[in-house]
Amino acid sequence: MKNTLHNRPSATARGWRKATYSERSSGCVEVGEVGADRAVRDTQNRELGGLAFGRTEWAAWLASVTR
């Protein structure tokens, strides 16, 4: 199965792992790497691919969800 990312069609993420915060809820999210960028996908719908975020976008998102 190819994990092509929707917002970056030529990119394929690697190293998918379950997000730490997914352990606490029924919704599971996996985080992967696309070069220096990060990607997220729904564990129940892996075949749909994921969304990639640049370093600045990822840092801003992490800051907003950890407050």
| Unreliable segments of 5+ consecutive residues | none
Give helix and strand order, one letter per element, not per position. Answer: EEEEEEH
What is the strand content? Answer: 35-45%
Q: Got a strand count?
A: 6
Secondary-structure content class: alpha+beta
Radius of gyration: 12 Å
Our count of helices gives 1
Distance between the ends: 36 Å
Question: What integer is the average pLDDT?
Answer: 78
Could you characterize the architecture of this molecule?
- The protein is of the alpha+beta class.
- The protein contains one helix and six strands; from the N terminus they run E-E-E-E-E-E-H.
- The chain has one helix spanning 55-65; strands at residues 4-5, 8-12, 14-18, 29-34, 37-42, 51-53.
- It starts with a strand and ends with a helix.
Sequence-ordered SSE layout with sheet pairings:
Layout: E1 4-5, E2 8-12, E3 14-18, E4 29-34, E5 37-42, E6 51-53, H1 55-65
Antiparallel strand pairs: 1-2, 3-4, 4-5, 5-6
